Amino acid sequence: MGPRLLLVPLGCLALLMPPPGAAEFSPSLDSDFTFTLPAGRKECFYQPMRKEASLELEYQVLDGAGLDVDFHLLSPKGETLVFDERKSDGVHTVETEDGDYMFCFDNTFSTISEKVIFFELILDNMGEDGQDEEDWKKYVTGTDLLDMKLEDILESINSVKARLSKSVQIQTLLRAFEARDRNIQESNFDRVNFWSMVNLGVMVVVSAVQVYMLKSLFEDKRKSRT
C-alpha cells in the first residue's frame, strides 16, 4: 500500500488513535506537505513512530492575514508535547516511543482569513538504515587485503546520504521562505496600488474644488463692479 495521509477536522476526532482504515504518513525519512487551512477550522495529522526514534517537524505559514497559526503536538498517550500560540513558523524535535503522534494546526481564532501552511517531517532511526547495514554486512568477508573495508565504504555512503538529505531539506525550506516572501510582496504591491489610486482621486477632487472656488471668486468680483 502506498503512502497515505490523514487530514481531519478536530470535531471528527473522538480518540487519539486513528480509526480503522485511517490514512497516515508512510515511515519515510522526509515528507513535506502544503495545505490551505480555512478560517475557524482546525486540522490534525497522524504520524506513526517507533521507540527511540526521532521526529523533527518544521512548519511555516506561507499566506494569510497575520501569518500566524496555533500548533499542537501530542504524544500517543494524549500528552501535549508542544504548544505554539499565534506563531508564523516553528521547529520542534522529539524523541519518540511506539505509537501515533498527532499534530494539529488551529485557525479557529480567525473568523475571516484562511491560511496556507507548509510543514515538513524528518524521521530518524526508523529502522531502515539498520536493515541496509545488515544487508551490507553479508558481503563483508575476506576484506583483510583491501585498503578500505566495506564498513568504511558504508560509513562514507551513509555520510553522503545524510548530507544529501540535509541539502534537500534546506532547499525545501528555502522554497517555502521564497513562497511566503513572494506572497508578502504581492500583498504590499496591491496595497501600494490601492492607496496610490486613492491619493490620485483625492488630488483630482481637490484640484476640481480649487478651480471651482477660484472661478466663483472672479465671478463675484465682476458682479460687484456692474
From TrEMBL:
It is a single-pass type I membrane protein. GO terms for cellular component: endoplasmic reticulum membrane; endoplasmic reticulum-Golgi intermediate compartment membrane; Golgi apparatus. It is found in: Endoplasmic reticulum membrane; Endoplasmic reticulum-Golgi intermediate compartment membrane; Golgi apparatus, cis-Golgi network membrane; Membrane. The chain crosses the membrane at residues 194-214. Belongs to the EMP24/GP25L family. This is TMED5 protein. Residues 1-23 form the signal peptide. Residues 42-123 form the GOLD domain. It comes from the Eukaryota. Keywords: Endoplasmic reticulum, Membrane, Signal, Transmembrane, Transmembrane helix.
